[in-house]
Amino acid sequence: MKYWFLRLCLACIPLGASAQWNYPSYDALKGQIQSISSNKLVEQVSIGKSFSGEQIPVLKIQSSKEAKPTLLIVAGVDGKHLAGSINALSVAKHILALPAAELQTLLSDKSIWIVPVLNVDAYKRNAQTLDWASGNGRQIDNDRDGRIDENPNVDLNKDGVISQMRVKLPAGPFRSHAEHPDLMVVADRTKSESGSYELFKEGLDTDQDGLFGEDGLGGVNIDRNFTFEYPFFEQETGDYAASEPETRAIIDLIFEHPQIATVLHFGLQNNLSVPEQFDPRKASERITKSWTSNDTQISAIISQLYNKDMKSLGDAPKMPAGRGNFSSTVYYHTGKFSFVTPSWWIPSQADTSKKAPPNQGLKDEDRFANWVRAKQIQGAILPWTKIDHPDFPGQEVEVGGVVDKFRQNPPVEHLEESGRLHADFIVKLTKAMAKLEFSAPKVTNLGDDVYRIEIRLFNTGAMPVYPEIADRIKHVSKMKSILEIQKSQKFLSGKRLQLYPTLAAGGSTNFSWLVKGKGKVQLTVGCPSAGEKTIDITL
Amino acid sequence: MKLRYNILTLAMTLSLSLGMAQQKTEEGQKEIAGLRAVGSPSNPKVPMNWNRYHDLKQMEQFYKDLQKAYPNLVKYESIGKSYEGRDIFVLTVTDFKEGDAKRKPAMWIDGNIHANELQGSEISMYTAWYLAENYHAVPFIKELLKDKVFYIAPTINPDSREYFIYEPNTMHSSRTGRRPFDNDGDGLVAEDLYDDLDGDGHIVMMRRKSKTGRYKVDPDNPNRMIIVKPGEVGDYELLGFEGIDNDGDGLVNEDITGTYDPNRDWGWNWQPNYVQGGALYYPGTLPETQAVKNFIYAHPNIAGAQSYHNYGGMILRGPGAAEDERFYSRKDVQVYDALGTTGGKMLPGYNYIVIHKDLYTVFGGEIDFLALTRGIFTFSNELMTNYKLFNEKAEGMRQSDEYYEFDKLLMFGDAYVPWKEYDHPQYGKIEIGGAKKNYTRNHPGFLLMEDAHRNAAFTIYHAYHMPKLEVLETDVKSLGGNLYEVNATVWNSRIIPTHSDHDVRYRIERPNHIRLEGAKVVTGMRVMNADFNETIEQKFKPEQIEVPTIEGTSAVKVRWIVRGNPNAAKIVVDSPKGGYLEHDLKQQGNKG
Question: What does UniProt give as the signal peptide span (chain B) (predicted)?
């Protein structure tokens, strides 16, 4: 396996040596996906094709093809988040490496499905080319000027990366950071700081609109193409909501597999470190924009579970999900519990020596620079080198500074711990999902062939059978009971088919029917996201 | 913007009436003045009855016949397949010999998105037929088809149209498509359909004698049930449309195929079904709406659109939701008002109104998609109104009894199934009867053709007012040395701008390009005020000046500084929605 080989090599580098970015190419990643699929507990299926025609795989970790309540893990939605894909595969490997008995128990009544890279086009491009963008393979007019890709990235100093570009001016908004001279920060006018630079993305202004490298390769960002509060006419959001095949493929997967109970997204938002908050005003509006009160309680419980497991990773930055995002759409429009985490972040305590000041309360830029220095991340913040720039004749122009891809994606070797911790959390999350149990059915003979059937159903899991919002969504399969009776029998009370609202964690529901006539009846109760049970009762 | 549309309307009427004098040319049919009822061909190449409805086979035959009869005016193509694999056809109607059809300002017309609303298809077909059959007889139409192109999709819901026509339905059912969904969340799909209990092909109402009923038979009309007055005792209860409880959940007809709404499947302000009933998973869940969207995006020349519905006699414009009111600027609304008000005159009994204000809120509708996602000036006519029955407004409290009267006096009872007894498995002894599926919402035959013409005329008026650009004047001045200044004025003679205000604000479509070809351009600029020399210079590609919009009945001025005498140069006006034209500088230069 290439991946392990790679890791082995990395491990050989002496401790404290600088770390390289080293993300596998898409072909290498596919190799990893393939090798995971060779496990007999894994079935690899395509959920559809990307805009450029690449298959999008889902890895189904399950003990059989029988539908069981399922946790769906999705990564690589925003193309700039390669780390999520690496961690999703790392989770798959860790789960499959669990002791056989433990794994068997876990998969006896649940399944775990993983879509490691939804935005395949982006991974392919970003892992190997200069073009670092969130979008898929569609050609888009990023700056809506009627010209397609007319202002692509240009690596001016030929160092193999697109970094930043600063132009010295008598007065400008940016200055060098006091401790990290290669990091440019906005001069704080309220503290009488003065700046003397303008800061741009490294590149040329081919179309003379004042923007550099703003319209090159890179299509629609799938994580901004979903239906919840879709941001129309913004950059990389597409022509309209769900315009992209990747967007539709993942939503179709969720609706066509009602057993999917919970969705966990490794992406660029976070509602696990900081749980969803209940906002009564937003929750009561026609277009609801807050989780329901009961659902936020579940968010809080899962968040506690998460933070306990991730303690060693330190405080995560606040990154609420929102407009056009996958995760918000999964909750509000598909009616599933929806959690999202970047799965890796710059640790709050970058320097483990006690003397170093903690990162808490620091700006993102400072955290980033501290981390780069402490971990000797090579190539993340570059020294400035002078260049001649055709758009700024006779001016002092330098290329250097921050290389964007490092912000959310550390060198691959740094993901190891977070991958392992998330696998542990995912096992707990899977176990927490709803599980149904019956009481023994109670049949009372009322005489003259009239029977009362009573049964009680319990949810023994730590989560409801589905979130409360799902009760409002037509296409989510609801809790139901079906009592099949013989032709010779008749309902005196109750119906053959009855739907019920969601059943809370630790909750129970009573069902009862009055049936006239002897013989066998068959009762099916439950819902796909918590499991269905069928029992025969003889009257 | 000053809309001189009154003058233009006058001009339009004038050219229409002038057209009558002239009759046939080589391709057209012989017209005998005394046989031709004005406005209609007396001897059409494709004879049609416009007082009936058509199934898909008949519709396709019509497309074939029209294309065969007028190969230079009509082409039809499939733009995609429906859920059940039927073709969705679009007729392209234009003068194919004049200019590039893909570059002419285009009018999109579709019908029958709600399949029970049949007549949108007939009216769309009539429009294509009328344009082709009158091309030779009416100079106005000839001119129109030289400048403009019509994309006409008579049905964008073919599966369900066929289902409505040939299967048991009510006048309201089969609004949807044929993709089955689990509508009640019980995990079963389409398990409780309508049941044509008496097997007569109509799904009508069920009533049952009841001591607690609140209805009685109208003594004047036995077809009609009326609510009894407070304190009065009724003798019937109404049990809804014909059907039984097929899945034993105590509900009748609750899981019919597709209770979704294809007109809630579009990509502007889409909302899920708990906000907007009828919505599916995401905009474009259905192959039919996807096909139309793809066609619309492939044709950026579409500047106007009409989407036919029934019922109620309305000329609707967006937005569908109050929160989107902010996307309709005063300027854009003025354009809508100019067209819609005239429409109100052309269509007696129809009112020009705004969807969310005067009808109801719609999220994810087609009209908003066309108007706001693409910046297309779009109307949606709700065809048929009870006004048409007796050419008068129905009075407030009449409980729509004009339909019963109309049936009695003009349809002689053809519109209703009389009540008859039936033994129902759940309800016991009931009676079945009521209005046939093609009554109330769909036009009675003899009214269909009149409304087809009036609506077609409105879309023609709408299409006529899509932008028409011309180079009004040019001049060349020597600046001394080898430098020259070239000035050009480009004028839009119609009501609709090349880009709506909304389009300009969100940069939906690329700007208009006014290009100077065949000259060495030093720099170029838009002239905002010629008298005071207010200009905006364009540094990037100055030979091709980018103009955000050319408003209705307005002009823009551009200027270039060129090296060498630009005698041989030409000006190209290249507008996505305003068309493409070339103008030789020399001629005009000499004139100036």
Answer: 1-21
pLDDT in tens, A238-278: 999 999 999 999 999 999 999 999 999 999 999 999 999 99
Secondary structure (3-state) at A401: strand
- Quote the percentage of chain B above a pLDDT of 70: 91
Whether residue B9 lies inside any domain: the answer is no
Phi, psi (degrees; rounded to nearest 5) at A222: -60, -35
Verify whether the Cβ–Cβ distance B267 to A239 is below 8 Å. yes
Q: Are residues B209 and B350 in the same domain?
A: no
Are B234 and B213 contacting, i.e. CB atoms less than 8 angstroms apart? yes
B204 and B79 both lie in a single domain: no
Phi-psi domain of B315 (left: phi exceeds 0; alpha: psi -120 through 50; beta: other): beta
Positive or negative, the CA dihedral A329, A332, A337, A341 is positive
For the four alpha carbons of A299, A305, A309 and A315, in that order, the dihedral sign comes to positive
* Enzyme catalytic residues of B: 382
Minimum CA–CA partner of B184 in chain A: A474
Task: Give the pLDDT of residue A4.
Answer: 47
B39 is a domain residue: no
At residue A454 the predicted structure's pLDDT band, cuts being 50, 70 and 90, is very high
In a shared domain, residues B129 and B150: yes
If you search the block for the tokens 């001049």, which residue do you land on? B475
Contact criterion met (CB < 8 Å) for B186 and A478 = yes
Q: Which residue has tokens 């009018």?
A: B107
Residue A496: which of B248, B282, B510 has the nearest Cβ? B248
User: Which residues 131-150 of chain A have a CB within 8 Å of chain B?
Assistant: 141, 144-147
For chain A, list the domains and their CATH numbers.
24-136+218-344+410-432 (3.40.630.10), 141-216+377-405 (no CATH), 436-538 (2.60.40.10)
**CB distance from A500 to chain B under 8 Å?**
no
Q: Please report residues of B whose CB lies closer than 8 A to that of A239.
A: 267, 297, 373
Same domain? For B144 and B279 the reply is yes
Both B344 and B379 in one domain: the answer is yes
Q: Cβ(B551)–Cβ(B570) under 8 Å?
A: no
Nearest Cα of chain B lies from the Cα of A10 at a distance, in angstroms, of 44
Alpha-carbon dihedral sign for residues B366, B369, B371, B374: negative
Q: How many of the other CB atoms lie within 10 Å of CB of A181?
A: 11
Confidence at residue B401, expressed as pLDDT on a 0 to 100 scale: 80
Contact at CB, B185 and A474, closer than 8 angstroms: yes
For position B592, what pLDDT does the model report? Answer: 28
Interface contact A475-B271, CB threshold 8 A: no
Is B454 found in the same domain as B350? yes
B561 and B576 share one domain: yes
Whether residue A495 and residue B250 make contact (CB cut-off 8 A), yes or no, is: yes
Chain A residues near residue B183 by CB distance under 8 angstroms: 474
| β-bridge pairing B534-538 and B520-529 | antiparallel
Which residue in A53, A156, A102 sits closest to A399, CA to CA? A156
- pLDDT of A142 > 90? The answer is no
pLDDT at A144: 77
Q: Is B369 on the interface with A (CB under 8 A)?
A: yes
Cβ contact (<8 Å) for B283 and A251? no
Q: Which of B249, B250, B540 sits opposite A207 (nearest CB)?
A: B540
Q: Does A208 touch chain B (CB under 8 A)?
A: yes
Domain range for B559: 469-591
ipTM of the complex: 0.90
Note whether residue B314 is domain-resident. yes
* Chain A contact present for B365, CB below 8 A: no
pLDDT tens digits, B222-245: 888 989 998 899 999 999 888 888
Query: Could you tell me if B148 and B125 lie in one domain?
Result: yes
Q: Is A260 on the interface with B (CB under 8 A)?
A: no
Residue B35 falls inside a structural domain: no
- Report whether A343 contacts A422 (CB < 8 A): yes
Q: A257 in contact with B at a CB cutoff of 8 Å?
A: no
- pLDDT tens-place string over residues A358-405: 445 567 888 899 999 999 999 999 999 999 999 999 999 999 999 999
User: Is the Cβ pair A333, B508 closer than 8 Å?
Assistant: no
